[in-house]
Write a structure and sequence with these properties.
The protein is an alpha+beta fold and about 170 residues long. It has one domain (about 5-165): MepB-like (Trna Endonuclease, Chain: A, domain 1, 3-Layer(aba) Sandwich). It is built from four helices and eleven strands; from the N terminus they run αβββββββββαβαβα. Strands 1-2-3-8-9-11 form a six-stranded mixed sheet. It has a three-stranded antiparallel sheet with strand order 4-5-10.
Length: about 170
């Protein structure tokens, strides 16, 4: 499949180098095309993937977390329908990495919608190269960083490959 998504090309490269099985059940999410939105399966696990975007006036990277409801209105992802993991790719110049969030973590931080929670339709992510953050951003970065794997050096790419090999 020929696809312009840099995040998909990078993920396929990581999996190929790790000799890991291919992506299955790939579905592009047209409503979030600008964020390279897609769902897929690797092994027995399901994933939703997005590419975060830098913003000119604020630190961090912005990424949408919404889908359309039956009336075509935007709503936060539902916990019930969320795949096992949500990958947020950060690819900018020579810096890149992946946040690989388990759905339970996104529920804990109020990102996913439930019957009694509205959820969030977008979040900001803060890779380890984002420094001098305000208090709120620092707090967010603190819970996000354990789920971030940088992918710039050979050792970092090995770490990403090892994460996928554990699936």
């Amino acid at each position: 499949m020929n696809n312009p998504f840099a995040s998909l090309a990078w993920l396929r490269s990581i999996l190929s180098q790790a000799n890991k099985q291919e992506i299955a059940n790939l579905h592009m999410e047209n409503q979030n095309f600008a964020y390279e939105g897609m769902t897929f399966k690797i092994g027995k696990y399901t994933f939703r993937s997005r590419r975060a975007k830098p913003t000119p006036k604020k630190k961090g990277y912005f990424v949408v977390f919404w889908e359309k409801d039956s009336d075509n209105n935007n709503q936060a992802y539902s916990y019930e329908d969320c795949p096992d993991h949500v990958i947020v790719h950060v690819i900018e110049h020579k810096q890149k990495g992946q946040f690989i969030f388990p759905r339970e973590l996104l529920l804990k931080h109020g990102v996913l919608r439930t019957d009694d929670r509205k959820g969030k339709m977008a979040i900001r992510v803060y890779p380890d190269w984002e420094k001098d953050l305000n208090t709120s951003a620092s707090s967010t970065q603190k819970w996000q960083l354990p789920y971030f794997i940088k992918g710039t050096t050979a050792a970092e790419i090995d770490a990403l490959q090892n994460w996928y090999l554990k699936l």
